[in-house]
Every structure is written in C-alpha cells, then in structure tokens.
Amino acid sequence: MADETELTMRSAVNLALAEALAADDAVILLGEDVADPAGGIVGATRGLSTRFGADRVRDTPISETAIAGAAIGAALGGLRPVAEIMIMDFIGICLDQIANHAAKLRYMSGGRTPVPITIRTAVFAGTGGGATHSQSLEAWLTHVPGLKVVVPSTPRDAKGLLTSCIFDDDPCVFVESVRLFGAKGPVPADAFSIPIGSAEVKRPGSDVTVVAHGPAVPDALAAAEQLAGEGVSAEVVDLRSLVPLDLETVLASAARTRRMVIAHAATTFAGPGAELAATVSHELFGQLAAPVERVGAPFVPIPASPALERSVLPGPGEIVAAVRRVTGW
Length: 329
Prior knowledge:
Low-confidence stretches: none
Mean pLDDT: 96
Largest sheet: 7 strands, mixed
Structural class: alpha/beta
Strand content: 15-25%
Helix content: 25-40%
Shape: globular
Distance between the termini: 43 Å
C-alpha cells in the first residue's frame, strides 16, 4: 500500500523513538550503549544521538539501578525518559525502583505526581544466551499495580504501542523480543499510535481461540495455518499488552469458539497465562467445551546449548498439540 512501508521491528522501534524525540523536547533516551556508534546492542537506537545530540540520547554507566533511578528523577522533573534495560534478566537489579517508586508515586501523591517513563527491555531467548540472559519475566511486572506492560509482536504494533507508551503519564514497561527484531511487516508511513490495552484478532477462526503475546504470536499463526490443513479453524488473538488486559476481546472470542489455548514463551508455572486461564474459566464457567490449555516453557532455567534451548522453548508444534487436546473433547 502506498501509505505503508515495509520495516523490521528494529527499524520500527527506531522510527517511533525518532518521531517522539522530534515531536517533544521532553523526550530523552538513556541506557547502556544507546548512543552512536553502538546505537544499542541490537541497533534499535542507531543514529539517534547523532541526529538529536548526546544530551537527549545519553549513554550511561553499566548500572541498571542508575538508569532506572535517573529516569524516574527525570520524569519527576518534567521529562519523558525512555530508559533501556538492555536484557530483561537485568531488570531484577532495578526492580525496587520500578515497583516501589515508579509504579507507586502517582498513587502515593494522590495523583499529583505522574511518572511518564518508558522502560524498553528485550528478551534474548532463542539466541543461546543461557540461563541468565534469556528469561521472559513479564509475569514479575504484571503483578505490580501501577505499571503498564506492553509486548508487541509485529513492527506495526511496536511503533504504534511504543509511541503510546512514551506519551503515557504512567510508567510503561515495553518488552521486546530479539527473536522478532529482524521480522518485517507493513508500518503506516504517517505518525500513529495504538491504544494500550487493545488486543487484536490476528487471524479469525471458529473452532478454538489461541491467545498469545510477543514471539508466541507468529508461532500461533503458524500453528493455525497447520491446523487449517486438518480442518480446524483457529482464531489467534494477540494480547499486545498484559496490563491493561483486554478481557473483553478475549472473552468474546472464547465464548464464541468455546475452546481456548494460551501460548507464551515464559514458564507455564505461574506464568502470564495463569491469570488469564483462571479469569476465562471463571467468567465462562459452563460455556467452555474443554478446559483451558496453556503452552509455555517448562519450569527450568533456559539452557545455553542451542539444541537444548530449542527443546525448552515452545513453538508451533506445542500449540498444535494443545489445540488437538482441547478440540478432542
């Protein structure tokens, strides 16, 4: 289409940051190696310090605590910081500042102190990074009132949702997947945003609802394509944000198909799908034709060996198997 361009997710993130920096002088970026020539560990901020200056795109020491603390302070001072925590596993280092300061200050000030920060962080699962560099920890963050947690699966969603996060007055954690950084997709040429908390039906279907987020979405779409060859029509719902959670879209789909599978890269045990499975089972008790199935990683550290890593990260095959279980009732 004339009004769309084909971008990778990396380029879409870069474009969203560039447009935000150009639109509002209050937007700043900070993090380890975000400035040129590195431009970020995956190149997502490449060129931005050259274009907007080192005052607004600032390298920091290797200290996640310093990054989060400086971002919160800058937000209280009237800026809109975008802080990069390079790898999601490191978010535990600054979790106190995120959970007990960024997430709580607006509540504790009676609404007088917004904290408009965006924390970009990436999941490196699938790259052989090993047990301390590959975790999908979004469930930690969804448990903290006051935080918004956004997980895009396409370049278009990445650009639109990141723009919304940057200009939101509440703290947002924007979880990217390195597995998806090279994926290409159409992105509107004009500036746009996508409301946080709006799920999207990525593929309509009538026999089963597959709910996914992040890298599990392309896996779910691949599974749906395989299932179509078996005569099973799977609807794929991309949550896009875990907080706020678009229950209306999920419940409407599950009520219609009467069967649901939840897929994510995080561990199944106490993972983000647990809350959704409990809610859907409660709200649709008596309407579902089969118990809700969950697909996720086993409750083990992620191995560094590529072969072992592939064996623990869920993919289309696990989703197909789960759909066969719920449609076999």
